[in-house]
Every structure is written in structure tokens, then in C-alpha cells.
């Protein structure tokens, strides 16, 4: 594996975690949204990440060098929260209100995990850069 493959792997991880943080931010911003264009409350979204070979040549040789790719953004089908709030304009005739299936604790935990994985990928990029710089210094003497 050459240093460019390392950079590609780390870059794919950075992109995936940035996308995950974008989706989590969207979930958090809609935590109280009870009416959407589709009708009904906001549904929590998640990303699906899959492993992806870095290049076709390495794949033909049976190389296990893989990065990641965001496959899709999917909706969470867990049931909505039901809250008794008869004064809310979106409440049903019994005064029950369907609220989004977004849990603040889950989203904040996912955000912390995404941040840590993002930081690990940044550190891997920095380490690769340092190794390349050291390798270039060898030829100078």
C-alpha cells in the first residue's frame, strides 16, 4: 500500500463522518417538527456506510485496501412518540400529539462518535504526511 492509498482511505472516512454529522444536525434541528411536507411528524434519518475498494487494480489483485462510501440516507421506522398535548394545533381529537422519533441522547452520542472518528482520520492524515516528509528528507543527505 502506498501513501496515496492511505490518504484516500482517510479522506473517504472524513467525508463519511462529515455526512453523518450533517444528518445528525438535521435530526436535531427537527426534534420538535410535528408537521412536514409529507404530512405527519419528522422522521429521524440515518446514513448507510459501505466499504469500497480504493482502486480497481488493487481489487483485481485481491487487495483488501478499502475506504468507505455513504451508500444512502435512510429514514428510521421506529414509532413516533405520543405526547398528550390538547392545546397543540397538530393534536388529534383525543389531545394526543405525535412527535418525531428523534432522541436527543442518541443523537448527541452519535455526534460524539462521529467527531471522534473524524479526529482519528485527521490524525491518520497527519501521520501519513509526516512519514512522507521524513522519507523526502532521507534523499537530501
Silhouette: elongated
Instruction: Count structural domains.
Output: 1
Number of H- or I-type helical stretches: 3
- The mean pLDDT is 89
- Sheet-strand content, in percent, reads 15-25%
Q: H/E series, N to C? A: HEHEEEH
The Cα radius of gyration reads: 22 Å
Tell me the total number of β-strands: 4
Structural overview:
The chain is an alpha+beta fold. The chain has one domain (3-138). The protein is built from three helices and four strands; from the N terminus they run αβαβββα. It has helices at 3-29, 56-60, 104-138; strands spanning 45-53, 66-75, 81-84, 96-99. A two-stranded antiparallel ribbon has the order 1-2. It has a two-stranded antiparallel ribbon with strand order 3-4. It is elongated and about 80 Å long. The model has no long low-confidence stretch (mean pLDDT 89).
List the helices and strands and how they pair.
Elements: H1 3-29, E1 45-53, H2 56-60, E2 66-75, E3 81-84, E4 96-99, H3 104-138
Antiparallel strand pairs: 1-2, 3-4
Helix pairs in contact: 1-3
Amino acid at each position: 500500500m502506498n501513501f496515496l492509498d492511505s490518504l484516500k482511505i482517510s479522506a473517504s472516512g472524513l467525508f463519511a463522518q462529515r455526512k453523518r454529522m450533517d444528518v445528525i444536525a438535521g435530526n436535531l434541528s427537527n426534534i420538535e417538527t410535528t408537521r412536514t411536507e409529507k404530512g405527519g411528524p419528522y422522521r429521524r434519518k440515518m446514513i448507510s456506510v459501505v466499504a469500497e475498494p480504493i482502486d480497481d487494480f488493487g481489487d483485481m489483485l485481491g487487495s483488501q485496501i478499502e475506504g468507505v462510501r455513504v451508500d444512502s440516507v435512510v429514514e428510521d421506522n421506529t414509532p413516533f412518540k405520543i405526547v398528550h398535548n390538547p392545546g397543540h394545533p397538530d393534536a388529534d381529537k383525543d389531545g394526543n400529539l405525535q412527535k418525531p422519533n428523534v432522541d436527543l441522547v442518541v443523537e448527541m452520542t452519535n455526534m460524539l462518535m462521529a467527531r471522534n472518528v473524524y479526529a482519528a482520520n485527521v490524525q491518520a492524515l497527519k501521520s501519513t504526511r509526516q512519514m512522507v516528509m521524513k522519507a523526502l528528507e532521507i534523499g537530501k543527505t
